[in-house]
Description:
This protein is mainly alpha-helical. It has a domain at 88-254. The chain contains 9 helices and 2 strands, in the order H-E-H-H-H-H-H-H-H-H-E. Helix 4 (94-120) runs antiparallel to helix 8 (206-227) and helix 5 packs antiparallel against helix 7 (181-200). The protein is elongated.
Amino acid sequence: MIWLALLALTGTSTPSPERVAPAVDPVPDSPPPVMSGYGIDPVRDGALLGAAGGFAVLTEAILSTGEIRPQSPGDPSLLLALDRPTALASHPEATGKILSDLSVGLAIGYCLLDIVRAEITDQPEGAFGYSVLYLETAAINIAIGDLVKIAVRRPRPRAYIAIREGRPLDATDLSLSFYSLHTALTAGFGATATHLAFSRNPDGAEGWILMGATIALTGFVGVQRVRDRAHFTTDVIAGALAGAGIGVLVPALHHLDPMKKLAVSPVGPDGPGLSVFGQF
């Protein structure tokens, strides 16, 4: 029935055995690919940015009110071996916060430069497309990170120091150790930038250089957060994993792989038919 319908649509009839099929051009083996790039959809990306961005703003506002009371830390001996030395350490090292803040600022600065370059070098997505990808990476990281912090409420190393010194735990922030958003944002921005670099030039060195720089900068931020007694070692490891995962997934889910075009051509000795080429 399908074959008869196709013949009817093409305005032909079934050839008799005496008829000779007309000569046809061979079907091309490799139809030309469609240009690859990153697809930005106003509805999908608008909804995603609105939800993640709004959630991030609201959770940050709630955490700033002090309505969530900090938990009292337990026995440091119950901590993982990786984390125990941080809980037993002395006062925070002041340069840890400064250097970690500057490092996140450096990552954001590179993203801004990448957005400008996308416009100057006439990338298919332009500055708007790159901006959407970087904003989604930031918004999703903050939203998920804050949700995990509120759910886990792990005391920071500073809370252990406060208990040893007899000081009260009077700030919500003392229970927001897991996981490190500084580390997550650094890894996330770097991962998105690396994905974009490999997309621009898969065989070039830029992507590999950015990957190495992202790993180094993320590790540096993690060390500074531990030095500042803001996080345990496992907090920064979790932050790096979460941030890198989100940073890769955001552009990957937007990526348009080269697709082969659909082709309709007559095939076979008995007349016309439908031949479809494509990757789905």
